[in-house]
């Protein structure tokens, strides 16, 4: 029937054009380390294909992972000229072009940009390639609307992938929508990306593989004439059977698999076969092509495509044949799998961003965190690899952290050290502490560091004491103090430790066991050490916290399959409540088997939110969650923020007892509607959160699946690392300005560093150098003037110019201007490209578990084209030399002209939501800061 229909269709639209695109998918580590793959596989693939490109004009090849290409060209620099030449000839195409193929569920927009920019920078610098058109995300485990938004901003016209929720795939196939325009709004994405879902996986069709269970059309290689004719027929049949899924008379056929074309004889003989198939085909026009040749033809075909605006996470794929749908595999376990690497990744990203800003602003030099880039790979940050590979990634990240601390230390010491003028004079030994505000607007924050004494004195360069409070912390103490910083300011402070109480030393906390903790803005009630109520100035919310575990008999490092309902675990062993002038801390020690989990709730005096930390480790067969029971009975109360879009996720009764299906990655944050206010939870690193029941949500803390889930890793994969989650929890309104502000406030909170003897930095107080002579440091240094709306997402140095990436976090249009000559570039750091608008035909709705794009919270519309639209990300290259001037960038706000209104599209509860938004508390206006000090107006008091 399908064949018949297709034949009819072909009669109408004409002869089919088949584009065989040779590729190799090269994981930067998975079952083996990246280095092993390079040595044993990848270098041969590149050798073989470059030799073939050299001797045969009819061969073409596409390449995605720049990490491997850079590695190869550093070993074989004589190959560079060939790569450049074949690229110019349109026969060797860079697709994707990132350092690796990053995971989409666990990285935020800045990590995704970083790794893509690293690849783009390499190909531009070394190969003169300044344009990548095709996004190539063949393997990641589900696709985020963040990717589509970002790729649009990076000048990628097309996105190609294979893994999509199975029911979506069926719907797309049956409606000929396997190609659509993906147009999320986040980051100011406007045009969207033309999205191609691969027919099946990213492998060659079965008859063109070498897989033993398939029948090869060519028989044996080298193929004889019969083999060639068989293959032509097989291709034609394949196209007849599959072309109905796509709209045009062009068909893409990827030729390759993981680490393909490594065997020289196979590669030569197989490519010869493809060339003969191409030369001898008559019914169809079959050719060896690059990806661009195919997409150029499709986009020139005057066909219109439907538009999708939602998210494609989670990924649910069928289990093994013969099993009921219950055993379908939700690829949601990796959202919280091996949480330690996720934490290290986000810590390193925060350091890298700051180190780049400092290096660029002070020296106009480039700094690259390539190991961080590598670990955005979809088998690294995801935790879906074998154990030795895991340790390899952790070692790489540690190397990057050390490199960043060294570089930053050298720069900061060079900025902050004064020429010694006075005679050195012996002092009480002190350590040098630098604080950096990574945000380019003023903040007032409660900061802390771990000290070994209860008595510390914190003082500044004028010997003024900064009041502080120490709280017992494990075998040490944490010293807390409040500090105000200008945007992108570095401050110098000093710390002395004393054995006994001193006049200006920290206040020692009072200890009690009262399970109510709070400040004038928020009161937190605990029961058995766990959350039970939250009270704001207006409302009290009952929200019971429990720690639960699932068995992992059916789960693995990729998947989370619930086999039995979760069981409530943990007994409270010890509880302490510390009070003092700076913070209150509630510390709960829980036991679970032989493990101890530690929850801390930290409330300072100045914030309308609080910090919750949870230290946890999962034993084998434990999948551990922090569960919240909310009593507010409403549908559509759970929102996830992926740093591009806020999307409402519904509980669906079809997912009862299948929690793994109703489970989402939280890269930016989680917002839950508690009837009168919206509670947000902003994590410092990505994790998963789901709804097991209608009024219950839970966050994945740690997991240790017992077995392999049959998706490739093949072994039980251990994890010896505990993790400590850090969440900022509070209440806000449901609008992008509040959510972005809260997210940035916490993700980019000030960092406290200590100096070491060799002018490096450390985050560990114990490792800090101790000095005894008079300190010779500048009190502070400021890189940029303060901004209201323009968040400086990154500042990097490229070819002696500065690249400013700016996100407008306000709901009105702004303009930024630069003192020096500048021009706009794309978010990936390459020149802007203008593509023809896509031909759109109506909206594409995908409905599974109700997570369609109707549930995406809409960004304000703006008619203006000049400047930066609300929540838009723009990138500028600014020509400059030497030390950056503070006023190089300025911001102009067009208030009122286009005061756009947030709307929630087509929600059944739209009225309810709008009323709730209207009734929300307004942010309290904070203290008015001193205008003379250069602070602009008012800002939020936390
Ligand atoms: C062509 O090769 C296949 C094996 O690949 C073999 O079975 C067949 O006999 C060959 N045909 C001719 C005509 O040589
Ligand atoms: C590859 O081909 C060469 C030349 O045809 C031959 O000598 C060699 O044995 C082949 N190698 C393999 C592994 O088949
Ligand atoms: C700095 O302040 C401390 C405490 O107030 C004081 O004991 C010390 O003498 C001062 N040091 C100098 C160099 O003034
Ligand atoms: C889900 O689990 C609960 C608790 O074990 C059980 O009572 C209920 O019948 C299950 N529901 C479905 C649809 O399987
Ligand atoms: C800080 O360094 C000391 C000494 O190397 C070490 O014992 C301690 O565990 C470190 N603390 C942290 C939080 O890493």
UniProtKB/TrEMBL annotation:
GO terms for cellular component: lysosome. Pfam families: Glyco_hydro_38N. InterPro entries: Gal_mutarotase_sf_dom (IPR011013), Glyco_hydro/deAcase_b/a-brl (IPR011330), Glyco_hydro_38_cen (IPR015341), Glyco_hydro_38_cen_sf (IPR037094), Glyco_hydro_38_N (IPR000602), Glyco_hydro_38_N_sf (IPR027291), Glyco_hydro_57/38_cen_sf (IPR028995), Glycosyl_Hydrlase_38 (IPR050843). The keyword rRNA-binding does not apply. Keywords: Glycosidase, Hydrolase, Membrane, Metal-binding, Transmembrane, Transmembrane helix, Zinc. Its cofactor is Zn(2+). GO terms for molecular function: alpha-mannosidase activity; carbohydrate binding; metal ion binding. One of its GO terms (biological process) is mannose metabolic process. Residues 329-397 form the Glycoside hydrolase family 38 central domain. The chain crosses the membrane at residues 900-921. Belongs to the glycosyl hydrolase 38 family. This is Glycoside hydrolase family 38 central domain-containing protein. It comes from Stentor coeruleus. The lineage of its organism: Eukaryota, Sar, Alveolata, Ciliophora, Postciliodesmatophora.
């Amino acid at each position: 029937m399908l064949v018949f229909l297709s034949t009819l269709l072909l009669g109408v639209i004409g002869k089919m054009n088949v584009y065989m695109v040779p590729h190799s998918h090269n994981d930067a580590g998975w079952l083996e380390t990246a280095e092993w793959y390079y040595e044993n596989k990848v270098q041969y693939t590149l050798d073989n294909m470059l030799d073939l490109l050299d001797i045969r004009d009819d061969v073409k090849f596409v390449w995605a992972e720049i990490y491997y290409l850079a590695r190869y060209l550093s070993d074989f620099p004589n190959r560079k000229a060939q790569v450049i030449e074949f690229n110019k000839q349109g026969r060797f195409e860079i697709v994707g072009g990132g350092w690796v193929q990053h995971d989409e569920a666990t990285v935020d927009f800045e990590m995704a940009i970083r790794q893509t920019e690293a690849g783009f920078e390499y190909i531009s610098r070394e190969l003169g390639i300044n344009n990548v058109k095709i996004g190539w995300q063949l393997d990641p485990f589900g696709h985020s609307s963040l990717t589509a938004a970002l790729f649009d901003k990076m000048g990628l016209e097309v996105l190609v992938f294979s893994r999509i929720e199975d029911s979506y795939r069926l719907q797309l196939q049956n409606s000929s929508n396997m190609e659509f325009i993906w147009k999320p709004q986040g980051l100011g994405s406007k045009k969207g990306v033309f999205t191609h879902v691969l027919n099946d996986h990213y492998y060659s069709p079965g008859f063109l593989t070498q897989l033993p269970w398939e029948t090869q059309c060519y028989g044996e290689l080298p193929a004889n004439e019969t083999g060639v004719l068989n293959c032509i027929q097989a291709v034609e049949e394949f196209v007849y059977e599959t072309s109905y899924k796509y709209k045009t008379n062009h068909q893409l056929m990827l030729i390759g698999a993981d680490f393909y074309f490594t065997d020289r004889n196979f590669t030569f003989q197989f490519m010869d076969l493809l060339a003969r198939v191409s030369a001898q085909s008559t019914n169809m026009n079959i050719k060896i092509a690059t990806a661009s040749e195919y997409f150029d033809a499709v986009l020139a075909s005057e066909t219109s495509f439907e538009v999708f605006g939602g998210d494609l996470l989670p990924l649910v794929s069928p289990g093994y044949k013969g099993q009921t749908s219950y055993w379908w595999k939700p690829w949601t376990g990796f959202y919280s799998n091996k949480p330690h690497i996720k934490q290290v990744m986000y810590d390193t990203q925060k350091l890298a961003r700051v180190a780049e800003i400092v290096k660029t602003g002070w020296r106009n030099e480039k700094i690259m965190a390539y190991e961080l880039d590598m670990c955005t790979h979809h088998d690294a940050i995801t935790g879906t690899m074998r154990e030795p590979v895991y340790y390899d990634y952790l070692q790489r990240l540690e190397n990057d952290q050390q490199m960043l601390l060294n570089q930053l230390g050298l720069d900061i010491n060079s900025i902050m050290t004064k020429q010694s003028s006075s005679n050195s004079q012996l002092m009480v030994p002190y350590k040098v502490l630098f604080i950096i505000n990574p945000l380019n607007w003023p903040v007032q924050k409660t900061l802390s560091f771990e000290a070994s004494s209860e008595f510390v004195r914190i003082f500044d360069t004028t010997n003024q004491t900064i009041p502080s409070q120490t709280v017992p912390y494990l075998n040490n103490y944490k010293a807390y103090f409040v500090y105000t910083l200008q945007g992108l300011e570095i401050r110098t402070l000093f710390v002395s430790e004393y054995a006994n109480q001193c006049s200006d030393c920290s206040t020692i906390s009072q200890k009690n066991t009262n399970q109510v903790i709070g400040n004038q803005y928020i009161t937190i009630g605990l029961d058995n050490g766990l959350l039970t109520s939250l009270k704001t100035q207006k409302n009290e919310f009952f929200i019971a916290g429990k720690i639960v575990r699932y068995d992992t008999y059916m789960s693995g490092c990729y998947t989370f399959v619930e086999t039995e309902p979760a069981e409530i675990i943990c007994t409270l062993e010890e509880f302490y409540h510390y009070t003092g002038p700076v913070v209150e801390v509630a510390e709960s020690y829980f036991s679970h088997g032989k493990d101890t989990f530690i929850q801390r709730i930290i409330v300072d005096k100045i914030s309308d939110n609080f910090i919750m930390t949870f230290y946890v480790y999962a034993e084998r067969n434990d999948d551990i969650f922090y569960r919240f029971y909310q009593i507010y009975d409403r549908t559509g109360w759970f929102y996830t923020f992926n740093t591009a879009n806020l999307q409402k996720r519904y509980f669906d009764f079809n997912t009862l007892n299948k929690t793994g299906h109703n489970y989402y990655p939280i890269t930016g944050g989680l917002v839950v509607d508690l009837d009168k206010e919206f509670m947000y939870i902003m994590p410092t690193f990505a994790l998963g959160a789901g709804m097991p029941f209608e009024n219950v949500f839970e966050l994945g803390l740690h997991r240790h699946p017992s077995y392999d889930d049959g998706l490739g890793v093949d072994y039980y994969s251990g994890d010896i690392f505990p993790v400590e989650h850090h969440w900022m929890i509070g209440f806000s309104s449901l609008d992008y300005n509040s959510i972005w502000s809260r997210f940035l406030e916490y993700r980019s909170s000030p960092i406290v560093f200590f100096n070491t003897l060799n002018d490096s930095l450390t985050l560990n107080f114990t490792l800090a150098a101790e000095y005894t002579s008079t300190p010779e440091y500048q009190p502070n240094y400021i890189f940029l003037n303060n901004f209201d709306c323009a968040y400086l997402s990154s500042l990097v140095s490229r070819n002696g110019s500065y690249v400013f990436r700016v996100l407008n976090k306000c709901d009105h249009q702004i303009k930024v201007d630069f003192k020096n000559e500048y021009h706009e570039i794309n978010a990936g750091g390459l020149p802007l490209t203008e593509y023809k608008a896509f031909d759109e035909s109506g909206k594409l709705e995908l409905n599974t578990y109700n997570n369609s794009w109707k549930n995406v919270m809409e960004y304000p519309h703006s008619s203006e084209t000049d400047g930066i639209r609300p929540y838009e990300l723009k990138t500028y290259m600014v020509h400059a030399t030497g030390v950056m001037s503070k006023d190089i960038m300025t911001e102009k706000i067009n208030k009122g002209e286009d005061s756009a209104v947030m709307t929630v599209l087509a929600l059944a509860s739209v009225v309810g939501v709008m009323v709730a938004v209207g009734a929300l508390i307004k942010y309290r206006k904070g203290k008015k800061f001193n205008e003379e000090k250069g602070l602009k107006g008012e800002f939020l008091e936390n």
